[in-house]
Structure formats: C-alpha cells, structure tokens
Amino acid sequence: MTAGPLRPPRGRFGPVRAGPGVRATGRDTTCRNTQCVLCCAPKDPTKRETPVSDVIALASDHGAIDLRTQVRDHLAARGLETLDLGTHGPESVDYPDFAAVLAEALRDGRAARGILLCGTGIGISIAANRYPFLRAALVHDVTSARLCREHNDANVLVLGGRTTGPEVARDCVDTFLDTAFEGGRHARRVEKLGTPPAL
Ligand SMILES: O=C[C@H](O)[C@H](O)[C@H](O)COP(=O)(O)O
C-alpha cells in the first residue's frame, strides 16, 4: 500500500462502548470463531464490520508486552478493533522482526495505523522507519503525540514499555488517534520524507 495520510479524526470515536470488543451494535468484534452462534457478528470474512482504516495494528518485542496489553485493552474499551501481531510469549525476541510484521500488515491493508513498542521504543522505531510507507514516531508525552500527527502525519505511534507508564501511554494513544494532520507547509516536508535524495 502507499503511505496515504490518516483519515481525519471522527470526533472522539463516539461514546465509550459497552466493553472490550463490544461495539455499539452489541456485536462482539473480538470473536473470530466462524462457527460461533453465541454472538451476532456476521462471520462472512469478505464483509468487514470495521473499515480497515479504523483497524489499529499492534506489535512489540518482549520488552513491552505488559504495556502493549494495556494499550490493546484501552483501544478495545474505546470500541476500536485491533490487530495484535505479538509477540505472544515472554521469550526474548528481536524487535526488527515485529516492526516488519506490522509494516506488512499496513502494506497489505489489514490496518491503516499502528502502534509499536519495545523496551525503549528506540530500536523498533529505527526499524519501522526503514519502510518508506511508515512514519513512526517515538513519543513520551502528549505534546509529541499531537505534533507527530499535526506536523509529521505519523501513521505509527511508538512507545517504550520500560520508559513510559500506562497512563501516559493511554493519553498518548488517544491524542495520536484523535489528531488530524495539518497539511500546508507540513505536507511538502512529509512528501520529502518518502523521497529522500540519492546520496
Ligand atoms: O531498542 C531496543 C529495545 O529497547 C529492546 O526492547 C531491548 O533492547 C531489549 O533488551 P533485552 O534483550 O535486554 O531485553
């Protein structure tokens, strides 16, 4: 996929939903059992209930599993669909591999935005920014989360599991998701990010 700008925010995504994975429709969007008759979600995989532009991909190494889980739960409480790409166990893994799986998900159109985490957020943001269609912003505060959208049109938020606490992380996530790109002079600069001069 190409690196298009994020869609303008739709207000604050409406009211908080009834619970994790349960959207205003009452459907359990976390249920992936194609045989399930207990929830009322349509199971035809060709008919998405959530537009891809609203799906948020998540990935981390072992250094940020707890924070990733907290962020994922927060997104679910907001009624947002997530695509959790792991890591799924406590074993030591390599953060470039998880930047790669998230890049793949965005390239393939399975999600339009992403959240990456590692111990500091540094390694995985370096890895993510090697993909020209990703603009990954490592943030530690809400102002950076706002400006990475307004000025840089970041499509991936990066957090450090060993450096950022859950409350700050949740605020950063909300600000990242709810802030639009300003365009104007910033559009010219963002365009240059995708087309660096050959050296
Ligand atoms: O930038 C890299 C990340 O912070 C990694 O999460 C970190 O280097 C992993 O360290 P360790 O292998 O000691 O858990």
UniProtKB/TrEMBL annotation:
Leader sequence segment: none
Matching Pfam families: LacAB_rpiB (PF02502)
Bias-annotated ranges (Low complexity): 1-23
Presence of the UniProt keyword Isomerase in the record: yes
UniProt GO BP: carbohydrate metabolic process
Gene3D superfamilies xref list: Sugar-phosphate isomerase, RpiB/LacA/LacB
Keyword vocabulary terms for this entry: Isomerase
E.C. number(s) listed in UniProt: 5.3.1.6
InterPro entries membership: RpiB, RpiB_LacA_LacB, RpiB_LacA_LacB_sf
Spans annotated as Disordered: 1-25
Highest taxon in the source lineage: Bacteria
Record-level Gene Ontology MF annotations: ribose-5-phosphate isomerase activity
Family listed: Belongs to the LacAB/RpiB family.
Stated name of the protein: Ribose 5-phosphate isomerase B
Lineage: Bacteria, Pseudomonadati, Pseudomonadota, Alphaproteobacteria, Rhodospirillales
